[in-house]
UniProtKB/TrEMBL annotation:
<dbReference type="GO" id="GO:0045892">
    <property type="term" value="P:negative regulation of DNA-templated transcription"/>
</dbReference>
<dbReference type="InterPro" id="IPR036388">
    <property type="entry name" value="WH-like_DNA-bd_sf"/>
</dbReference>
<keyword id="KW-0238">DNA-binding</keyword>
<protein>
    <submittedName>
        <fullName>Transcriptional regulator, IclR family</fullName>
    </submittedName>
</protein>
<dbReference type="GO" id="GO:0003700">
    <property type="term" value="F:DNA-binding transcription factor activity"/>
</dbReference>
<keyword id="KW-0805">Transcription regulation</keyword>
<dbReference type="Pfam" id="PF09339">
    <property type="entry name" value="HTH_IclR"/>
</dbReference>
<feature type="domain" description="HTH iclR-type">
    <location>
        <begin position="1"/>
        <end position="51"/>
    </location>
</feature>
<keyword id="KW-0804">Transcription</keyword>
<dbReference type="InterPro" id="IPR050707">
    <property type="entry name" value="HTH_MetabolicPath_Reg"/>
</dbReference>
<feature type="domain" description="IclR-ED">
    <location>
        <begin position="52"/>
        <end position="233"/>
    </location>
</feature>
<dbReference type="GO" id="GO:0003677">
    <property type="term" value="F:DNA binding"/>
</dbReference>
<dbReference type="Pfam" id="PF01614">
    <property type="entry name" value="IclR_C"/>
</dbReference>
<dbReference type="InterPro" id="IPR036390">
    <property type="entry name" value="WH_DNA-bd_sf"/>
</dbReference>
<dbReference type="InterPro" id="IPR005471">
    <property type="entry name" value="Tscrpt_reg_IclR_N"/>
</dbReference>
<dbReference type="InterPro" id="IPR029016">
    <property type="entry name" value="GAF-like_dom_sf"/>
</dbReference>
<dbReference type="InterPro" id="IPR014757">
    <property type="entry name" value="Tscrpt_reg_IclR_C"/>
</dbReference>
Length: 233
């Protein structure tokens, strides 16, 4: 679903398999299932979102907020790291939910997450999913400003970083928002929603960061395939 969401005009099975990192037979099986369920449709040899996915993205099937909160709490416990979920909605970054544990507390919001998307992994992941016009509009309203000595220094440097991002790789941020903290985010695509999820860890546990965010990706993918979880709220 994430791979399909990156192609406005659709993409063939082989390309989607490559971008999702799946064997071609597995990709064909998933594509057939998603098409049968109405979440995808096939036109002229390419796959696009179907009516069921578009209903999710358009809000026709609004999920219970408790589903998101409960899922994040479960993942925070299993992964052993705080888990964050955010949307880009109506031109702004919106933190949907955060889950942590006493042993692994979430990053304190000392500077508005909404206004400092350039400095944290969630924000960079969301901005990376926007088209150029929407991205420029956001930065006009929320200018780039360094928060720490590791933060991106200016608008041009941020735009270069966003353009270089690869859909299949997590967005990693090291001490750009909060000193002593590293964070990694992944895009989440359901219908037309622009969303992301992330984990954070203390700097001295940085070696756990990529395994943790890949574990989160697997957990989210499993739940998305059950069609129970939608972040388009």
């Amino acid at each position: 679903m994430e791979a399909v969401g990156t192609h406005r005009d659709g993409a063939p099975a082989k390309q989607l398999a490559r971008e999702a990192g799946l064997p071609l037979p597995t990709a064909y099986h998933l594509l057939r299932t998603l098409t049968h369920e109405g979440y995808l449709r096939r036109e002229n040899g390419v796959f696009l979102f179907g009516a069921a996915a578009e209903r999710l993205g358009g809000g026709a099937a609004t999920p219970r907020p408790g589903v998101i909160v409960d899922s994040l709490a479960h993942w925070a416990h299993v992964i052993g790291a705080p888990v964050y979920c955010a949307l880009y909605k109506d031109g702004e970054i919106e933190m949907v939910a955060v889950a942590d544990t006493p042993a692994a507390p979430a990053v304190r919001e000392w500077a508005s997450f909404r206004e400092t998307g350039h400095a944290h992994a969630l924000g960079q992941c969301l901005l990376g999913q926007l088209d150029e016009r929407a991205r420029e509009d956001h930065l006009d309203r929320h200018p780039v400003r360094p928060l720490t000595r590791y933060s991106v220094r200016d608008r041009q440097a941020l735009l270069c970083r966003l353009r270089a991002m690869k859909r299949t790789e997590p967005v990693v941020e090291r001490q750009e928002y909060a000193m002593g903290t590293v964070c990694a985010a992944i895009p989440i695509t359901v219908g037309s929603a622009v969303a992301a999820m992330a984990v954070s860890l203390p700097l001295d546990q940085e070696e756990r960061l990529l395994p943790a965010v890949e574990q989160l990706r697997c957990e989210v993918t499993t739940l998305l395939r059950s069609f129970v979880f939608s972040i388009s709220i």
